[in-house]
Amino acid sequence: MEYMRVFLVGGIICVIGQLLMDGTKLTPSHILVIFVTSGVILGGIGIYEPLADFGGAGATVPLPGFGYALAKGAIKATSEKGILGAFTGGVQATAGGVAAAIVFGYLMAVIFTPKAKK
């Protein structure tokens, strides 16, 4: 049943992104910013937490989940370190994922020799 919840939540997020691409003139970059920003806002006001609890990786892996992690890290660090935590908490909370994306992206570029589009 957990797989169904993950698939449902992740699928709904992807459907929203697809509808935005098909039904508007927004570019993928605009949609990326909208998703991350919406994750930050929904995480900051406490709405994304129940969604992440229900949907698991279906809610935390897509782009709104990154925004949620930024907000959650900033909120936690602010309660521990004061106002300075608002600036450092999000970066600390997402540093592992960002570092992994850079390392694995570099490794794939070395292994598979990417070519420029023509």
TrEMBL record:
So where does this one cross the membrane?
A: 6-24, 31-48, 83-112
Keywords in alphabetical order = Membrane, Transmembrane, Transmembrane helix
* Entry annotated with the keyword Transmembrane: yes
Annotated InterPro entries: Spore_V_AE (IPR014204), SpoVA (IPR005562)
Could you tell me which Pfam families the record lists for this protein? SpoVAC_SpoVAEB (PF03862)
Domain of life, per UniProt, equals Bacteria
Tell me if 4Fe-4S is a UniProt keyword of this record.
no
Q: What is this protein called?
A: Stage V sporulation protein AE
